[in-house]
Amino acid sequence: MDNYDWIKKILQKIKERKPLIHHITNYVAMNDSANVTLAIGALPIMALEEVELDDITNMASAVLLNIGTLKQDEINHMLLAGKYANFKNIPLILDPVGAGASKFRTRTAKNLLKTLKISIIKGNSFEISTLIDLPAEGIGVDAISSNKNYANIAKEAAKKYKSIVLVTGEKDFVSDGERVFEIEGGSFLMSKVTGCGCMLGSIVACFAAIERENLLIASLGASIFFKSVGKLAEQRSTLPGSFRNSLIDSAYLISNDEEKLNAIWREKNDPVC
Ligand SMILES: Nc1ncnc2c1ncn2[C@@H]1O[C@H](COP(=O)(O)OP(=O)(O)O)[C@@H](O)[C@H]1O
Ligand SMILES: Cc1ncsc1CCOP(=O)(O)O
Hints:
Layout: H1 5-17, E1 20-24, H2 30-39, E2 43-46, H3 53-59, E3 62-66, H4 72-88, E4 92-95, H5 103-115, E5 120-124, H6 125-131, E6 138-139, E7 142-143, H7 150-161, E8 164-168, E9 172-175, E10 180-183, H8 196-210, H9 215-236, H10 240-256, H11 260-268
Parallel strand pairs: 1-2, 1-3, 3-4, 4-5, 5-8
Antiparallel strand pairs: 6-7, 8-9, 9-10
Adenosine-5'-diphosphate is lined by residues 124, 142-143, 168-170, 172, 186-188, 190-191, 196-197, 200, 226-227, 230.
């Protein structure tokens, strides 16, 4: 058994079971989210219409709510899809894109967290700090990284919302409110392509669909996997436009090549966790 066998097992199960991931997400990154979901062997569906939400959720294995281009009338759709997900007891993932950038987004993200049982919250340090009322540094949908203790932010948010929390950035932090894991790696270019956080949200949902009973493992695995994807993508292309496509290709390559995951980490020798 090598280090990443547990991630390979999750990837294998994704390919075997092809979980349907219901996204209510923003129209900036929607296409990338759909493609990265397909690349790893799961199936995406983006659906907003209220009259079909029960049918869609009925078929889905996880639901992802992403408030990136939120409009007032979408809030009810999110609440309804979330309620169906909670009723069906499937993982419900929140990506509070831009929380902190406007009172509307902050209020809505907090309201979703209050009303629904969110299994995993994934966001950058700006968004997650905002959710726990800490002074946050960011502009628009992007965080401005500083020397803050993001491990502690992940832990406090996880405690407050009784969810698994994944804080992204140059390093990711995953916490269940007690333990915190730090994940290095990825590529600087990931901060130069919009939608990388949203793609990770889709991957988290795919992993959670398989690891329903251990959402900490699902989140940690998704973070390590996407950091590996970023590394491989950078080896294949070094400019943002082609890097974006390379992310989809690399997600496909790593999930279809048993050895690639280990090889990526061996090459650069980065510590994980
Ligand atoms: N400078 C960086 N170096 C390595 N990985 C990064 C860097 N910036 C972002 N990432 C990775 O890109 C993905 C999106 O993270 P982030 O940019 O923080 O989210 P968002 O797009 O929501 O602001 C995560 O997988 C994160 O680990
Ligand atoms: C630029 C932008 N504006 C609204 S949603 C969005 C995409 C954000 O994607 P990510 O948070 O993954 O960078």
